[in-house]
Amino acid sequence: MSVHKAITKHSNKQNAIAKEFLKLDQQREYYIEEAVGRCLKGETFSTDKINEITKRINDEARLGIVPERKYVTLDMVKEYCAQLAADKKSD
Fold this sequence. Notes:
Elements: H1 2-40, H2 48-61, H3 74-90
Helix pairs in contact: 1-2, 1-3
Protein name: DUF2533 family protein
InterPro entries: DUF2533 (IPR019688)
C-alpha cells in the first residue's frame, strides 16, 4: 500500500504544479495583452510584471513538468505592435 500512496502523492504534486503553471500562464498573457494595448495607444508600458511571472514559471519548469517561457523585452512588445499595425494597413 505504501507504493500506491507514494505514487498518489507524486501524481498530486505534479498536478498541483501543472495547475499553478496554467494560472501563471494566464496571468502572464494578461500582462502581455496589457502591455501591447498600452503600446498601441502610445502610452508608456513595462514588462516587469510579465517577467516576474515568467521567472516564477521558469522556476517551476526546472522540475521538468511544465515548459519554460521566454522573458519579454520592451523591444519585443514594440516589434509586435509594429507588425500588428503593418498587418492592419495591408488589410
